[in-house]
Specification:
Layout (H helix, E strand, L loop, with lengths): L17 H6 L5 H10 L8 H12 L3
Helix pairs in contact: 2-3
């Protein structure tokens, strides 16, 4: 009897540069300002990572 192994189907989230995220219409102006201050120019970020940074920076505002 052959055993089947499940392959982990890890979705790779798209990554964006700081410039792309700051120019994105998907964020409010204040959120783009936060990203402009918090993100590193040399690192790529997923949308979830960017949203988490915004949430953490706002601190429940």
């Amino acid at each position: 009897m052959a055993t089947r192994t499940k392959k982990a189907t890890a979705k790779t989230a798209a990554k964006y540069s700081k410039a792309s995220l700051v120019k994105s219409a998907g964020f409010k102006p204040i959120e783009r300002d936060i990203l402009s201050l918090k993100l590193d120019d040399k690192v790529l970020y997923s949308l979830d990572e960017a949203k988490k940074i915004i949430r953490n920076t706002k601190g429940g505002i």
